[in-house]
Amino acid sequence: MPLPKYNGPKPSTMHERSFRGLPIVVAVLVSVAPALHAQRVTGPWEDATIAPRGTLRIGISPRWEQWEERHDASGNREPLGAALSTDGLGGSLPFVFGAPVPFVAGMAPALSVLSGLPSPPLSLGALQTTLDVTQVQTQISLDYGLTSRIGLQALIPYVKNRVHVRPILNQGAIGATLGFNPALSFTGARQQNGLVVTSISSAATRLSGELARCLGSQDPTCTAINADRSGATALVQLAGQVSGALTSVYGTATAAGTLYAPVAGSTLHSAIDGRLTSLNTQFRAFLGAPATGEWINGRPVAAVPLAAADLDELLGGDAAGIMARPLGDYEHSHVGDIEVGAKFLLLDTFGPPAISPLPTRGAMRLAVAGVYRLGTGQLDLPNDFTDVGTGDRQADLELRGLFDFAFGPRLWMSSVFRLAVQRPDRLVRRIPSSVADLFPEAVSELQVSRDLGDAMELEFAPRYVPNDEFSISARYRFRSKGLDSYQGTFPVNSADGTPLTLDASVLEVGTEQKEHQFGFAVTYSTVRANSRGSAKWPLEISLLHTQVMSGSGIPRIQMNGLALRLYR
User: N or C: less crowded end of the chain, CB within 10 Å?
Assistant: First the structure.
């Protein structure tokens, strides 16, 4: 019978949420906010400035991010799809890569009898996955100068993710020893398997009868049997075991068989063929040649290696127990994690922006800020192994220290220190049975306790301001995040009935991160021109680019973006 298909929601609608009121909110803010006092060129990177008192600073920054590689825990670059690639999907033995999937490991005893191999190779084949992510993030920032030293701020990100996935299973049909059992879908396969089982049973019954007849007999036809009665008895026993194993694995008209069967031409199938050939030869040695054909007629119907459609059934169907979204392209959008906070200006010797267009050498500006990040983002789905969320959907508190220093009238540096204290929460995750388990089954989808590792960032952004209209800036950012903590132990039964004890701490592996990021920006400003009456709109527009250069446990993200900042 055909395997059940995945009947979950369509990928394009799973995460879709509307945020249509955002442009209207921004338009209203622009129209009602008061006029601006002069402000020098700042650029897109964060600094210690706050908006002038009574001024609303509105920023709109669309950013295009793309990544197809990651830095692993050792800092080495690898394709993003490497985490979903294996040389032995579903393998359960030490020499096969990958982790078990339901119904595979339980086949080992019967396949050992059928093949004569103590440890039969069990693998659904090689899976090579290519994966890349494109993210379009539009950040709406609002900064309001409450007083000359206190500013309020908010950041509203709207994120659209597109994940491109291309799984390639069993390219060249090399390595797979198991595939979906054809007897589950084709009556003819069950009938053919039944004929093989019947021929083995008939030969064993004939030899058993001859053992009884030949006991003490001098009949010439009994010579071979009486010469090795223990061998003949062992052959009868072995034939019964092989007949039972063949029935339980391949299936007959009266037995369903297993979900998987040996693949034609594989080492496992060749071993089974050799085993049946050997049995037939032994029956001939004791019984002589049959009147027609051979004692063991035919062979059980073998499987074919899994292909793309079979992988969809493996992941999305009910029969295999995984019941997840099949690997494929995916697109969704949602609000990210919204930030609200306040900034306090502690020291400022740059001078009032309306009077001093450029700072003097040695000028300093020092500010501190507190930011509360709301859990408004969309989490990645636990039953989608390639999904990328729009946020952590977890609240945390971030403290910032900001320091600007002027090396001269046209060159100044911004330094920012950030410390994010993440708050614990609970969420639903799929818990792998081990770190090698690529596709945890549905019974592992459980609620666990999570505490994301605290993060520290240190950022330096030198800025060169040749005049009132332009600035050129660079940025270096170092980020370090501690190991996440997941807690929860759960006894469950696998889809094939195997008892499992799942430990959520396996989700912690590889969550510690370090990142070195570089970037640059070019900014054009009409802010001071507007204060002189020579420009209609006071705004800044920047072109910016950042690139993750090195690190560990992080994607290698490249970002290109625009940043528009409007003062009202």
Answer: N
